[in-house]
Amino acid sequence: MRILVSLAVGGLALLCGCSSEHFTQGHGDAGQFILQHAVAYGGHPITTNSLPTVGSDWQYVQDEFGVAVQLPASRYQAARSFVQSAFGPPSNSAGWSVRDFGVAIMIQMIGSNAVVSVYPPMSDEQMARMAQKIDDIVQKNAR
């Protein structure tokens, strides 16, 4: 259960943070960018060879909690296929968990975009800071 909460809180932190942080335009295949960050955060892919491409029209935002890659909705399935090819089947309905893969990965549709979020393992203190960031953003946007 903690894994699902971590993924959900992490996703919200990055996505809510996008309103105050700026996206950076990505270049090249977004899948390779996702894989590089997953490995840098401690992920253990089952393969890095012959992976499908995700596309070149993407942007990302990164903070102390992880990275979120935003793609057009039409690239959702390509992103899911890429991550599944690299890491295998998801460990739960939320995505790929730190416990099983060394890194947490979540793919979701948000509005007209597909978003792939990648998070390193987090301590309870980091999770508390992330939750506080979400609360601050929600409070700011509620005004």
Task: Give a structural overview.
There is one protein chain. By secondary structure, the chain is an alpha+beta fold. The chain has one domain (2-142). The protein is built from 5 helices and 5 strands, in the order αβαββααββα. The protein has a 5-stranded antiparallel β-sheet, with helices on both faces. Strand 2 (59-63) and strand 3 form a beta hairpin. Helix 1 crosses helix 5 (124-142) and helix 2 crosses helix 3. It is globular. Residues 1-9 and 16-20 have low confidence and may be disordered.
State the end-to-end CA separation: 32 Å
Largest sheet properties: 5 strands, antiparallel
Alpha-carbon Rg, integer: 14 Å
Q: In the residues, how many domains can be counted?
A: 1
Class per helix and strand makeup:
alpha+beta
Q: What overall geometry do the principal axes of the alpha carbons give?
A: globular
Tell me roughly what share of residues is in helical segments.
40-55%
Order of helices and strands: HEHEEHHEEH
What would the average pLDDT be, to the nearest integer? Answer: 84
Strand and helix layout:
Blueprint: H1 2-17, E1 24-25, H2 30-40, E2 59-63, E3 66-72, H3 76-87, H4 98-101, E4 104-110, E5 113-119, H5 124-142
Antiparallel strand pairs: 1-2, 2-3, 3-5, 4-5
Short overview:
The chain is α+β, with helices and mostly antiparallel strands.
List keywords for this structure.
143 residues, alpha+beta, 5-stranded antiparallel beta sheet, 5 helices, disordered N terminus
